[in-house]
Amino acid sequence: MKRRTFLKASATSTLSAAAQLGLGGMYAGISKWSFAASPEQANIINKSINGGPLIVVFLRGGADGLAILSPLDDPNFLAARPPEMRFTKEKAANSAPITLDGTNFYWHPAAAPLNQLFSNRRLIAWPTVGIKDETRSHFEAQEIIERGIQNLQTLPDSFGWMARQVYLNKGQISPKVNSLPLFAGSNTMPRAMQGANQVLAVRDLQGGISFQGGQASLKAIQTLAEVDNNHPAAQTMLGNFASLEQVNNALPKTDNKVLPYTSSGQVPYPDTDPGVGLRSVARIMQTNLGLQYAWVDYGGWDTHDAQPGRINNQIERLSKALLAFDEDMRAQNKDYKLVVMTEFGRRLISNKSNGTDHGHGSLALIMGSQVAGGRMMGRWPGLETNQLDRGVDLAVTTDYLQLLKNA
After folding, report:
1. Per-domain boundaries in the chain
2. pLDDT one-digit tens code per residue, 109-164
3. Most Cβ neighbours (<10 Å): which of 34, 94, 320, 400?
4. Can you name the residues that pair with 2 across neighbouring β-strands?
5. In terms of C-beta distances under 8 Å and separation of at least 24 residues, what long-range contacts does 390-393 make, across chains too?
6. What is the pTM of this model?
7. What is the pLDDT of residues 19-67, one digit of tens each?
8. Which residue in 356, 401, 377 sits closest to 62, CA to CA?
């Protein structure tokens, strides 16, 4: 195989499960694109997610927001979900209801840590967030959200919104040299970061970053890239290797062995998703490499069947991970803002498999060091048939882009 052919193939294949490094170039000729919020909500959004890096925890699969934060006093909800598909008020995590537009809401029993964050005014619940596009396709909805657009018919460019914000924010051409503005605590680089060339994706950083094939393989590819460093693929690879080495060098070590990260808070990180990814984000923040945006994937929310048991585990893991991260950041006095979102919600009426099918509006959460929490945001549309989207789904009353204002 010719050296250039090898370099071109290696640029997209060598940094796989251990470290998915972003490929791409600069954004010459791309006009600045920004998120927009309605004037009446811009102030609270700015207070909620201003200060420190912005972290997105993305619930892939379409999370059933109506199951996480349920309107248990609404007769329409009770009629739509059989007893096994809902919980009773006596088992709810919050003893007193949370009210929005005259409707009472109750946290799922497994969401006790979320209720704690909410009660401590560290978290905002936003129950009717989504895309305005009517698609119920996972692929299309995720693509819309990760690219920061309204639909797939009008595309401003080919980049993910996080990459776009980093490289074009405030007229900046590129982030600082020797910095890591984008990090994903996941096994793969999210679409939101596509187009950046200073980006790293690693789910678990407890043992540092090991290159697939070992150091000998890494050294061989580096040597080939350096010999042909005028080739674009070689330049990209060298930049990626530099990011990998930069992070590895920044991690604390004893006898050249990376020390495991320990939370400064009282609650330990769960050794499951999304706790592992959030722990890695916390570790990157501790390196002071200039992190601006982070992304953590949490899959398993496509609950077409056997939803009660499955979603109980999902909610519990999410809740514990968020509480652990907040306690860790508070103990270290670190600023951050974090948004939990999903591509769409689930249908109001459950199906015959004790599950729910693809819907529209869903629950989003905002938490962070400067959050004016302990409140519900948005407008509750109601669950009467004539209030539902297409007569079957919770309507979207808040465009997801409003959550990301000034992100």
Report:
1. 1-29+213-257, 31-206+261-403
2. 999 999 999 999 999 999 999 999 999 999 999 999 999 999 999 888 889 999 99
3. 400
4. none
5. 390/134, 390/360, 392/347, 392/348, 392/349, 392/359, 393/345, 393/347, 393/348, 393/359, 393/360, 393/361
6. 0.85
7. 333 322 222 222 233 343 333 333 444 444 457 999 999 999 999 999 9
8. 356
